[in-house]
Amino acid sequence: MTTPIRHLPRRIPGWAKALIALVLVLVVLFAGLRLSVVPGLKDLFGTDTHDRSGPALLKSVRDISRYEAASGNFQVVVDLEKDARFLPDAIRGTRTLYVGAGTVDAYVDLGKVGEDDVTVDADRTSATLRLPHAALGEPALDPERSYAVSKQRGLLDRLGDLFSDNPNGEQAVQKLASRHIGDAAKDSELAARAESNTTAMLQGLLRSLGFEEVRVSYGS
Question: Backbone phi, then psi, for 173, in 5-degree steps?
Answer without folding.
Answer: -70, -30
